[in-house]
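Exercise: predict the fold of this chain.
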Amino acid sequence: MADTNITYSYSQRMTWLQNHTRIDPDRGEIEMWNILKCIWHRVTPDTLGSVYPVIVWGVLSTEEAWREITVAAPQPPDYAGDRPPVEHYGRDVIVEWFLKNHRLSSDGQSLQRRSPIDRQWYDYLEGENGDWGPKDFEETYNSAFLS
């Protein structure tokens, strides 16, 4: 499941979880920030794989990951407001992300992106699969791609 070449340490993971999970104030359910769609997403052990980035999750079992989430979600986050902290990435970081997470398919006929959630490669079709890059990168990403 995990890309073991790049994973978060325990303390990095818990900091990320504290900033990207919460208890929904109205329903009391655990939510995780969906980095692709930039919305809060209800999570359960069964739905973690669709929203929890594997680079953060690492090699934990679903049960271990869920235990950490239930510890982190109720903790007060390190930010104020309804949205997790957004890192303001510069052009160089976006270009580096693009270079590491985009490639031509083996037949050279399509552009592929690596999903930040499951780290798998997918064909990128304009409009159809355009949410495999963090939305907070979109404007800079688009200008980097054009250049």
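Check your answer against the key: The longest strand covers residues 30-34.
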